[in-house]
Design a protein that fits this description.
Elements: H1 13-23, E1 25-29, E2 32-39, H2 43-53, H3 68-79, E3 88-92, H4 98-105, E4 110-114, H5 118-130, E5 136-138, E6 152-156, H6 162-177, E7 182-186, E8 198-205, E9 215-224
Parallel strand pairs: 3-4, 3-6, 4-5, 6-7
Antiparallel strand pairs: 1-2, 7-9, 8-9
Length: 242
């Protein structure tokens, strides 16, 4: 999950990384405990810290939480490594880098992570290092780009804003026409698409500071492109796949 576009802070990456370290703890992801990411254990103090200290950027730390859609997509990728093995994978709206890390752990040849928030670069680099993987981060949106060489697009939790949801789905259809599948995690946000093929469903543990319930039923959807050939299905973590 990533924020709307805003102004980039002028602070160096090392300073942003220290900000992340100081206000988060490295914790296992609830639905994918084999992966650890820097997480905010109390949302309000971190939210206030970003607003007070980085007033030249969006003050919502989307990068500090494993959102439901990202967790479900992460679990799905880990349970189906054949989905990404040997491919160049693009993670759209990477946030903490959780889905990108899962793709790298599952055997992707290369992983590109995109997000508008430069804080995400700090979080992604720290989280990738903690999990022993390499992620190529881009602080921009790839929407509308052809992305030659990419074999799979992943997107966790991107249907919470109308323009973002519409833009992603239009781009996914363009890529799908050339044979590139796009797969999204969807916990039922306000602009969740209807009628897309459902690849899996997970019950995802979520903190009440972020969501209105402790567990969200979350779908993994084929947004566009050819359906993946999955050789195995594994139920993992705290959720159940179906």
């Amino acid at each position: 999950m990533s924020p709307p576009a805003g102004r980039r802070p002028t602070r160096p990456l090392a300073e942003l990384q220290q900000f992340v370290r100081d206000r988060t703890t490295l914790e296992p992801v609830p639905l994918a405990p084999e992966i650890v990411v820097h997480q905010a254990t109390e949302m309000t103090p971190l939210w206030r810290a970003t607003a007070a200290e980085l007033c030249d950027w969006d003050d919502s730390p989307f990068w500090a939480f494993p959102w439901a859609g990202g967790q479900a997509l992460c679990r799905f990728v880990l349970d189906h490594p054949d989905l990404v093995h040997g491919r160049t994978v693009l993670d759209f709206g990477t946030g903490s880098g959780l889905v990108a890390i899962a793709a790298a752990r599952a055997g992707a040849a290369q992983v590109e992570a995109f997000d508008l928030d430069p804080f995400c670069e700090a979080a992604v680099r720290l989280n990738a290092e903690a999990n022993g993987v390499a992620i190529e981060f881009h602080a921009r949106s790839p929407l509308g780009e052809p992305r030659p060489g990419v074999g799979l697009v992943l997107a966790g939790d991107v249907f919470y804003e109308r323009a973002l949801a519409a833009g992603f789905l239009a781009w996914a259809r363009e890529l799908g026409a050339s044979g590139v599948p796009s797969i999204a995690g969807d916990p039922g946000r306000i602009y969740s698409p209807q009628g897309l093929p459902e690849l899996a469903v997970y019950d995802v543990p979520t903190p009440l500071e972020l969501e209105d319930r402790p567990v969200r039923r979350t779908r993994v959807l084929l947004a566009a492109g050819p359906p993946p050939a999955l050789s195995r299905t594994v139920s993992g973590g705290a959720g159940a796949a179906s």
